[in-house]
Amino acid sequence: MDTIPATQPPHTPGPAGDGSVGVYGITVAAELAGMSVQALRFYERRGLLAPARTGGGVRRYSDADIARLRRIGSLIAEGINLTGIARVLGLEADNAGLHADNEGLRARNAHLRTANTTLRSSSSTATGTVTSPISFTGGQTTGTSTFHGVAAGTTTVTVGVPAGFSTPSTNTSLTATVQ
Predict the structure, then answer these.
(1) At a CB cut-off of 8 Å and minimum separation 6, what does 42 contact?
(2) Residues 156 and 83 reside in one and the same domain
(3) For strand 52-53 and strand 125-136, is the pairing parallel, antiparallel, or unpaired?
(4) What integer pLDDT is reported at residue 141 of this predicted model?
(5) Percent of the chain topping pLDDT 70
(6) Cα Rg for the chain, rounded, in angstroms?
(7) What pLDDT was estimated at residue 123?
(8) Which residue from 8, 97, 112, 124 puts its CA 20 to 30 A from 34's CA?
């Protein structure tokens, strides 16, 4: 059974670097995290930490690594074993990912709502009369149809066939421009 190396007294210096690039050597990282160098190596062996490495294999710790080490230290202080810590860290990472996804979906939803509102307000409705020549079997005449609630632009309306004319059906369609 592995034992947890003793940690140094808690020391909480402020953040450094941009957070994502491994810039600290193991000694500086241990000091920033308030842990021993042996503890950092131990946590890496246990899979709780994966610092970046240079071409020569030297560990380089980022601010995110330092924050993770501090979280590991606080979980140990709460009495959680390393298996439990691995599970907690995994669940926290999953939760952060879901939170980010949720925020993205909320932003997308807000964008779609705005676009929908814009589309609804820009498609003004019109009420009017379409008068257009309609060719029926038996001659040419003018068909007139009134429509309500049709959006401005080019649309298709159905008109009834005037009495005395024969068509394949009792209604026919025409394309009209509504203004």
Answers:
(1) 2, 4, 5
(2) no
(3) unpaired
(4) 46
(5) 58
(6) 36
(7) 59
(8) 97
Residues 160 and 117 in one domain: no
38-66 per-position pLDDT tens digit: 999 999 999 999 999 999 999 999 999 99
Percent of the residues in the chain that have a pLDDT greater than 90, as a whole number: 51
Pair 5, 46 in one domain? yes
User: Does one domain contain both 148 and 69?
Assistant: no
Residue 132 CA to residue 139 CA, distance in Å, equals: 14
CB contact at 8 A, 16 and 61: no
Instruction: Identify whether residues 72 and 15 lie together within a single domain.
Output: yes
Is the pLDDT at 149 greater than 80, yes or no?
Answer: no
Same domain, residue pair 50 and 132: no
| Token couple for 124 | 């003004």
Sequence-ordered strand ranges (E) for 51-124: 52-53, 59-60
Domain match, 82 and 110 both: yes
What domain range is 172 assigned to? 125-178
Q: Which residue, of 76, 101, 122, is where some domain finishes?
A: 122
- In whole angstroms, what is the distance from residue 87 CA to residue 113 CA? 38
Residue with tokens 């079997």: 137
The pLDDT confidence band at residue 20, using thresholds 50, 70 and 90, is confident
pTM for the whole structure: 0.53
Rounded-to-integer distance, Cα 43 and Cα 102, Å:
31
Average pLDDT over residues 148-152: 49
